[in-house]
Amino acid sequence: MKDISAKIKEFLSRFFRNHDLQLDEDIFALGFVNSMFAMQLVLFIEQEFQITIENEDLDFANFRTINAMTHLIEMKTNLVSQT
């Protein structure tokens, strides 16, 4: 989990340079995310963790915090490894 969280935080820190984003901070509530950035974030997660984000995964709750994204990735990678 730490590796996943660290990779996500590193990616996000490129865009939020003046803010030390915490694992449980809501990036939408902070005003950091627009629709274009949300697409970049989904693409980053798919490419970095070699998973597919399905339509049913595109829920704000899955992307609000680093912890939420980490949980989504862990669920997706566990599903892939079980098949």
Could you explain how this protein is built, in words?
The protein is an all-alpha fold and 83 residues long. 53% of the residues lie in helices and 0% in strands. The chain is globular, with a radius of gyration of 12 Å. The mean pLDDT is 91.
Give a quick summary of the entry.
The protein has helices at residues 2-13, 35-49, 66-82.
Residue-averaged pLDDT, rounded?
A: 91
Count every helix, treating DSSP H or I runs of 4 or more residues as helices. 3
Output the structural class. Answer: mainly alpha
Number of strands: 0
Assembly type of the shown chains? single chain
Beta content comes to under 5%
- Proportion of residues in helical segments: 40-55%
How is the topology of this model organized?
Layout: H1 2-13, H2 35-49, H3 66-82
Helix pairs in contact: 1-2, 1-3
